[in-house]
Design goal:
162 residues; Sulfate adenylyltransferase; 5-stranded antiparallel sheet; 4-stranded mixed sheet
């Protein structure tokens, strides 16, 4: 699992923002439909997450990163033309929107510093790995003994390969 947020936000400043524009309603609908398609569990939360009379802003940054903000709060980001990925704040509001993997205690400090998670950290007694994971699937990462999601990642292998 690759730890995406460390790549993007480790040294993020305002100078990294290229443009920041009000999103057209068609763009906002496209983001919403993409999010609901990628995260089917999100459909019941979508009205609360994407209110009708909201100020939707599309922020374009360096290195082909886009962020989608609703009423001043960044909810999702996109790397190149990949899927829209929720921020940790969004995941804390809707923790069941994506599959959850758990890393064992020994990996916690390394994960919080941005390290990739290796298979032994997920398959050891303290880790947990859902059986239905596919390759390149976005997952929420939780640490053993903790209740909140600490990272977001992308699987580089399916659960069967791990």
């Amino acid at each position: 699992v690759r730890y995406l947020l460390s790549i993007m936000f480790k040294s993020f400043t305002e100078s990294d923002i290229s443009t920041q524009n009000q999103a057209k309603s068609s763009v906002a609908r496209g983001v919403k439909s993409s999010v609901v398609e990628d995260y089917p569990r999100m459909e019941e939360c979508a009205p609360g997450l994407f209110p009708k009379k909201a100020q939707n802003v599309l922020v374009k940054c360096k290195d082909h990163v886009q962020m989608f903000a609703v009423n001043g709060e960044v909810l999702f980001f996109q790397l190149r033309d990949g899927p829209w990925i929720p921020t940790l704040r969004t995941l804390h509001r809707f923790p069941t929107m994506m599959p959850l993997v758990r890393v064992d205690r020994g990996a916690i400090r390394f994960v919080l510093k941005g390290a990739n998670i290796m298979t032994p950290g997920l398959t050891s007694p303290g880790g947990a790995l859902p059986q239905h994971l596919e390759k390149d699937q976005i997952v929420a990462i939780i640490a053993e003994g903790k209740e909140h999601i600490c990272a977001i990642g992308r699987t580089l292998q399916s659960a069967d390969e791990m």
